[in-house]
Design a protein that fits this description.
The protein has 258 residues and is α+β, with helices and mostly antiparallel strands. The strands form 2 sheets. The protein has a 5-stranded antiparallel β-sheet. A 4-stranded antiparallel β-sheet has the order 3-8-5-6, with no helix packed on it. Helix 2 crosses helix 4. The protein is globular and about 45 Å long. The protein starts with a helix and ends in a 29-residue tail after the last helix. The protein binds fe (ii) ion (FE2).
Length: 258
């Protein structure tokens, strides 16, 4: 954790308990196979699409993951978010082995990008672990200190960059914490995809309070209200699902999960 501020990321192999991992996997399958994931994306891409009838936090284990006590206790450290932070969003996905890549980008929410005074952190949970044939994660250590638009490096594609750190082997239930402004890329899968396993990844993000954060989903209030109604803050984290830390939703051209 000492190097988080310097590098902008930390790897937590096998961070999630296997009992939680076992319950999350069928929920991800349900989310993807029933079309709920697609509907949640559609609702972000066009005002003509209604909000989804269900959001991720309503699924039992997904809600628990969003407010997983060991994770929140780590985030509250001063060198991470500090004592007061709010849940921003959660995406759940399953990608087939041999999936495509995603160009270099970052996910820090600020429009326009102007400073890095308030940290935002993405927790990338690799439920089934990570292997090269699932598509690896590469990050550029220290790049979170640059102030740049999210897609400022998109011209680089997914190409290897000097000084990058490649993360492609993780056991099930591993978590990578990224400062959301850290540039990263998902490499296209390599190696034999035959007998390969799907990549189960749930990402959840959190922000230090003290500024107004732009929401990324038009139905963001519904997501936060689910967190409150389920009591996921356990009385310990009163700001975790509080609306007052957000500005109004503005639709972006992209409008789809990262
Ligand atoms: Fe990303």
């Amino acid at each position: 954790m000492e190097k988080f501020n310097e590098n902008g990321y930390v790897i937590l192999p096998g961070f999630l308990p296997s009992s939680l991992v076992r319950r999350l996997t069928p929920e991800v399958d349900h989310w993807v196979d029933t079309g709920l994931r697609e509907r949640s994306i559609d609702a972000c891409s066009s005002p003509e699409h209604a909000p989804p009838s269900v959001v991720e936090l309503q699924m039992e284990a997904h809600g628990e993951l969003a407010a997983h006590t060991p994770l929140l206790e780590l985030l509250r450290e001063d060198r991470l978010l500090g004592p007061a932070f709010v849940f921003h969003h959660l995406h759940s996905d399953r990608r087939p082995p041999g999936g495509s890549g995603k160009s270099w980008h970052h996910d820090y929410e600020q429009r326009p990008q102007r400073d890095r005074e308030h940290p935002m952190i993405h927790a990338l949970h690799y439920i089934g672990g990570l292997r090269p044939e699932m598509g690896s994660l590469a990050v550029l250590p220290g790049s979170h200190r640059q102030v740049a638009e999210k897609d400022a490096w998109s011209h680089l594609g997914t190409a290897e960059q000097p000084g990058e750190a490649l993360i492609d082997e993780l056991p099930p239930g591993s978590t990578v914490l990224l400062h959301s402004a850290l540039f990263h890329t998902r490499r296209a899968a390599r190696g034999p995809v035959k007998d390969g396993r799907a990549r189960y990844m749930i990402d959840a993000s959190y922000c230090r309070t003290g500024t107004l954060w732009p929401p990324v989903k038009p139905y963001w209030r519904m997501v936060l209200s689910v967190g409150r109604e389920r009591g996921l803050g356990q009385g310990r984290w009163p700001e975790l699902f509080a609306d007052r830390h957000f500005s109004e939703y503005v639709r972006t051209a992209r409008g789809v999960p990262e």
